[in-house]
Design brief:
By secondary structure, the protein is mostly helical. It folds into 2 domains: 124 residues; 144 residues, no CATH class. It is 33% helix and 1% strand. It is built from 17 helices and 2 strands. Strands 1-2 form a two-stranded antiparallel ribbon. The structure holds heme C (HEC) (10 copies). One heme C (HEC) binds next to α10 and α12.
Length: 292
């Protein structure tokens, strides 16, 4: 008797109503849920069957339906949805990452982005085309991709997920931000930018320390900008002089990053075009001043 009681307590919530609950197989669902059933053979979950997600259907069929007799996602909180999907998907994505991701913490879970039965994009079962899905909650980001200089996300050249992992990320904090911004990583825990801009990868004999330390975002806006080359400042030299100003305690002599050389006559407009001479600004194999 005692044994049975313990067993009952250990059963999940959806089975508690009536026990024992049995698996009855997906065919049993066909009669009443033909709308869901008819194209399920195309679903990547076909082999898991209906009950892989909704749990055993015995009681539900016996009761001729009802939300209380089966695992109904419409009655679940975010945490339960997450747990149900992770029963099978904890191997594909790091459980630790997804648990502490900005999305999970904001109660945005699997079923907010994926639609098992009504996906318009059979690939990845997304609830909407990717950019529309992301913009549906991140409306302000759309404006950034409409700026004069931008990564062509709206035009379909690249996608949000080329740089972000909506499931969470191992990435260190790039730039000065305090969150990982779900930024994904390329090989060797590098910034995702290097997947495509491979010429910026190095290693260089002479590195520009800022590229490695502060990352690409030290100088570039990742989404869009009104400045050429997605730069953070409209005029290149103001960008350079933000760091090269001899202030603070950064730099190899702890005296701040040195100012431009005394040989530079800043009244001569020529000298304001820093990258006219410092052409290998991302790093060089030939010159410590990045002149070639
Ligand atoms: C991979 C998990 C999964 C599998 C497998 C699955 N479902 Fe669902 N089902 C869901 C989720 C999640 C919802 C909530 C709506 C949504 O997000 O699409 C749902 C919703 C439903 C609904 C509510 C109506 C609706 O369309 O929203 C019914 C009925 C249903 N499923 C029946 C079935 C049947 C029948 C099968 C097998 C043919 C099945 N499900 C297989 C996850 C699954
Ligand atoms: C005899 C008809 C019948 C059969 C057979 C049946 N269902 Fe249902 N099902 C219903 C009815 C009726 C509801 C209640 C709908 C409501 O309350 O909105 C329901 C609700 C559900 C829901 C909850 C939908 C929601 O609102 O989130 C799920 C999930 C579901 N059924 C899955 C299944 C699965 C899986 C099977 C096969 C194992 C199955 N059903 C077999 C009639 C049936
Ligand atoms: C914020 C939106 C979002 C949330 C939340 C989300 N996903 Fe995804 N998921 C996506 C997008 C977008 C893709 C497509 C990625 C691509 O295009 O490379 C994807 C891809 C996938 C894939 C296939 C490729 C892969 O990365 O393995 C699986 C499986 C998956 N998601 C499962 C889940 C599960 C399970 C959950 C909940 C634990 C979840 N997703 C939560 C947006 C999301
Ligand atoms: C019973 C196990 C199981 C459960 C529970 C489950 N899945 Fe899956 N899922 C699978 C399997 C198996 C595949 C196919 C994997 C493959 O083909 O590599 C899959 C594939 C996927 C894919 C990838 C589709 C693609 O095109 O690559 C997504 C997205 C996904 N599942 C989301 C979900 C979500 C969201 C939930 C929760 C509502 C969920 N799954 C629950 C087993 C499961
Ligand atoms: C080229 C790479 C790249 C692409 C493509 C990209 N992002 Fe980003 N995104 C980043 C980086 C890097 C950061 C971190 C910025 C920082 O630290 O200064 C970021 C930050 C963010 C942030 C947090 C900061 C903010 O501005 O609110 C959100 C939200 C965001 N991205 C959403 C999106 C969405 C939605 C898409 C697709 C429509 C997208 N991103 C496409 C690289 C990218
Ligand atoms: C259902 C709404 C929803 C959807 C869909 C959604 N997000 Fe989010 N996202 C949020 C919320 C809420 C947060 C946490 C609060 C915030 O920072 O805006 C967040 C956070 C983020 C962050 C971190 C922002 C930061 O400041 O660190 C990034 C990056 C991001 N989302 C990208 C995406 C991408 C890419 C997609 C599409 C694959 C997507 N989101 C889809 C709601 C959503
Ligand atoms: C998926 C590939 C891909 C990724 C990842 C990527 N880019 Fe790009 N990037 C491009 C392409 C393609 C262009 C060409 C411009 C266009 O699409 O019109 C470009 C252009 C640029 C430009 C030059 C813009 C101009 O006006 O000439 C800069 C700067 C840039 N990317 C920086 C970055 C940074 C920083 C990151 C990481 C946050 C990054 N990219 C990630 C593909 C990528
Ligand atoms: C110290 C500031 C700085 C950092 C850090 C930086 N860039 Fe740049 N980047 C520039 C400047 C300045 C230009 C414009 C060069 C010019 O005007 O000739 C540029 C131009 C570019 C361009 C377009 C022209 C070209 O050379 O292809 C791309 C792409 C680019 N950067 C990618 C990156 C990536 C990826 C990273 C991170 C690995 C990065 N940048 C880090 C300053 C920087
Ligand atoms: C985000 C900060 C930052 C920005 C912006 C920046 N730099 Fe630097 N730069 C550094 C640091 C840090 C060093 C290495 C200083 C050290 O080792 O003490 C450095 C080194 C250099 C050197 C190498 C000199 C040597 O003696 O090793 C040159 C040349 C240089 N930067 C030029 C530029 C130019 C031109 C720009 C604008 C396109 C620029 N930097 C923008 C931080 C920055
Ligand atoms: C006309 C070409 C030219 C332009 C334009 C130019 N530089 Fe230089 N820069 C050089 C040369 C050559 C050197 C190495 C010899 C020297 O110190 O004069 C150098 C050296 C440097 C150094 C290293 C100084 C040291 O003591 O190690 C820094 C930092 C630097 N430049 C930053 C800048 C910045 C910032 C700008 C834009 C405001 C700029 N440069 C514009 C040619 C140029």
């Amino acid at each position: 008797m005692k044994q049975t009681a313990i067993l009952l307590l250990a059963l999940p919530f959806w089975a508690a109503a009536q026990t024992p609950n049995k698996f009855v197989g997906g065919d049993a669902c066909k009669v009443c849920h033909s709308d869901v059933w008819f194209n399920f053979y195309k679903n990547p979950h076909f082999k898991t069957g209906c009950e892989g997600c909704h749990g055993p259907g015995g009681n539900h069929v016996a009761a001729h339906g009802g939300k209380a007799t089966i695992r109904a996602f419409s009655a679940m909180g975010p945490e339960q949805v997450l747990d149900t999907c992770l029963e099978c998907h904890s191997k594909d994505m790091s459980r630790a990452n997804i648990r502490r991701s900005e999305h999970t913490e904001a109660d945005v879970v699997c079923s907010n982005c994926h639609s098992i039965h009504k996906s318009p994009t059979p690939k990845f079962l997304l609830a909407n085309r990717q950019k529309d899905l992301c913009y549906s909650c991140h409306a302000s980001i759309r404006a950034q991709f409409e700026m004069p200089v931008k990564h062509r996300v709206n035009e379909g050249v690249i996608q949000c997920t080329d740089c972000h992992n909506p499931h969470g990320s191992f990435a260190a904090t790039w730039g000065t931000g305090s969150s990982s911004a779900l930024v994904t990583t390329a090989l060797d825990n590098e910034e995702p930018c290097l997947k495509c801009h491979i010429d910026k990868r190095g290693p260089f004999v002479y590195e520009h320390a800022s590229v490695r330390v502060e990352g690409c975002e030290g100088c570039h806006m990742p989404h869009g900008s009104t400045n050429a080359k997605l730069l953070r400042r409209p005029v290149t030299f103001t960008l350079c002089l933000e760091c090269h100003n001899g202030a603070g305690s950064f730099g190899r002599e702890n005296t701040g990053v040195f100012t431009q050389s005394a040989s530079h006559n800043m009244l001569d407009p020529k000298y304001q075009k820093c990258t006219l001479c410092h052409v290998r600004i991302h790093g060089s194999n030939a010159d410590p001043m990045f002149l070639r």
